[in-house]
């Protein structure tokens, strides 16, 4: 009979240790893995926002370059028109 009670005690001890190991595992997941995952998601979101901001700045820069080119073309045309008008005015 004592061997049966020893076996029962060993089984109970094994179950308790298994439950403790499971609790430690769950605790590690909650305390370590979850915060790392949250940090990783925040980092990825910040990276996406940074890339989106860079694309927006590049778009604004291209638009500004196009506007400067148009202004330069308009200025050159205006100078040509002024020269042509001053030549016509000088001939008459």
From TrEMBL:
UniProt entry keywords in alphabetical sequence: Membrane, Transmembrane, Transmembrane helix
Transmembrane intervals: 12-40
Annotated protein name in UniProt: Phage shock protein B
